[in-house]
Amino acid sequence: MKIPFNLPYVSGKENKYISDAVNHSSNPEYESYNNKCKKFIKERWNYKDLFMTSSCTAALEVCALILDIKKGDEVIIPSYTFPSTANAFIRQGAKIVFADSRSDYPGIDEKKLGSLITKRTKAIVPVHYAGIACDMNEIMKVAEKHNLYVVEDAASAIDSKYVTKQLGSIGHLGCLSFHQTKNLHCLEGGAIILNDDSFLKRIKYILEKGTNRNELVSGLVERYEWVDIGSSYMMTELHAAFLYAQLEKAEWIKKKRMSLWEEYYNSLLILQGKGILKLPNIPEYAYHNAHTFYLILNSTDSKESLRKFLSDNSIQAAVHYTSLDLSKFWKENYSKISKNPNSLRYNDCLLRLPLYNTMTKEEVSYITSSVLNYFNF
Ligand SMILES: Cc1ncc(COP(=O)(O)O)c(C=O)c1O
User: Fold this and answer.
1) Pocket flag, ligand 1, residue 56 (CB < 6 Å)
2) CB 179 near ligand 1, within 6 Å
3) pLDDT, averaged across the chain
4) Amino acid 305: pLDDT
5) Of 224, 247, 270, which residue is a domain's last?
6) pTM surpassing 0.85?
7) Residues 161 and 26 in one domain
8) What tens digit of pLDDT does each residue of 298-317 get?
9) pLDDT of 149
């Protein structure tokens, strides 16, 4: 048995919908898959408004443009995240200010935000790590007090909630990823969620390469032109056709992943009880989507040693983010000093176990037995 870390899911209808998009898109009756995906996501997860994008990276870049982020602005992001969270803002000239993770969970520590805010702070970008919500109530309170924008990086968090609210629907803007490592995917894809109507007009320009083409399509103008800054940020119709086939399986995917996640949790709980490692902590306000199952070992050495043992047993476990303030790029260009001990711990000690939609309980059982066996249980 060889178990990969991830196996991108195929529902079976992707080819049919793609060929539909190729063969029928000029038919006047044809409703675009882009529109179908948008409607499906909006209705199922109760979002105010959203647009499909080419990736979550693109969605984050659109957010930085809409918020007019520029040189001199400061943007607070967790250091334990993917480079796209920072790139979107740094390429606009903003200064990135790193916040530490919580000690009990890799998400941003809401209690440390206050001390990072200055007169130049413009936005906070919480990342819902592993689809597990940050404390959005506290983050929104801080943002309101200081008049800041909040952009939720919900890359891994489709189908996750903060209490009753979908992640991505709470800040001013939210970003989703449909990359092939996510629960629902189209190889590369994303969405930007708008929770504030005032962004609506500009977002259409930005997504349409800085033009008012959508006004031409709606018959409002006779020709379109350059009206704003923008780029090629929209999801292609072929990616949308692929994604629609996955969205139709959203309910099954969530249930399936949750049952695998719980199997991992229940089987490995004994190791947490003995202080050997920590399992994911789900805060009481978070309802997660079983995107990731991770372990936090007591040291880098024990994490590497377990990873090697699993690899020798044909199980591909994976580390996750290199904290951005420990990365080559940051250290060479900005600072060699890292002041985020919790982020450092996740950088060093977090190990993700395989989890994908078609995985079987037998495979999870083989992995949990191997982990228990490694620790002599
Ligand atoms: C927190 C976070 N933000 C953004 C991204 C980028 O997503 P995408 O690959 O859709 O551009 C990722 C990628 O996994 C991520 O983990």
Assistant:
1) yes
2) yes
3) 97
4) 98
5) 247
6) yes
7) yes
8) 999 999 999 999 999 999 99
9) 98
Domain membership of residue 6 (yes or no) is: no
Q: Residue 348: which CATH number?
A: 3.90.1150.10
Residues 189 and 238 in one domain: yes
User: Is the beta carbon of 82 within 6 A of some atom in ligand 1?
Assistant: yes
- Whether 1 is in a domain gets the answer no
User: How far is C-alpha 293 from the geometric centre of its chain's CA atoms?
Assistant: 15
Among 190, 192, 202, which Cα is nearest to 172's? 192
Positive or negative, the Cα torsion across 164, 235, 189, 329?
A: negative
Comparing CA positions, the residue from 281, 277, 282, 280 lying closest to residue 307 is 277
Phi-psi region of 290 (alpha: psi -120 to 50; beta: other; left: phi over 0): left
What does the pLDDT read at residue 28?
A: 85
Check if 153 has its Cβ closer than 6 Å to any atom of ligand 1: yes
Indicate the residue among 188, 218, 247 that finishes a domain.
247
- Is 207 found in the same domain as 159? yes
User: Residue 20's domain spans which residues?
Assistant: 14-247
Closest ligand 1 atom, residue 189 Cα: 10
Q: Same domain, yes or no, for 243 and 265?
A: no
Contact by Cβ (8 Å): 279, 332: no
| Closest approach atom of ligand 1 to CA 178 | 10
187 with 254, same domain: the answer is: no
Report the alpha-carbon distance of residue 19 to residue 219 in Å, rounded: 29
pLDDT computed for residue 134 by the predictor: 98
Judge if 89 and 144 occupy the same domain: yes
Mutate to test the pocket of ligand 1, among 177, 234, 292 (most ligand atoms within 8 A of CB): 177
Which H or E element spans position 154? Answer: strand 149-154
Give every residue of the chain whose pLDDT is below 70, as ranges.
Answer: none
Residue 3 lies in a domain: no
Tell me the CA–centroid distance for residue 56 and ligand 1, in Å: 6
Ligand 1 touching residue 177 (CB < 6 A): yes
Q: How far apart are CA 286 and CA 11, in angstroms?
A: 28
Q: What is the per-residue pLDDT for 320? A: 98
Using CA positions, which residue lies closest to atom 16 of ligand 1? 82
Confirm whether 28 is domain-assigned: yes
Q: How far is the CA of 153 from the centre of ligand 1 (A)?
A: 8
Do residues 180 and 37 both lie within one domain? yes
How much distance in Å is there from the Cα of 89 to the middle of ligand 1?
14
Answer whether 190 contacts ligand 1 (Cβ < 6 A): yes
User: Does residue 242 share a domain with residue 154?
Assistant: yes
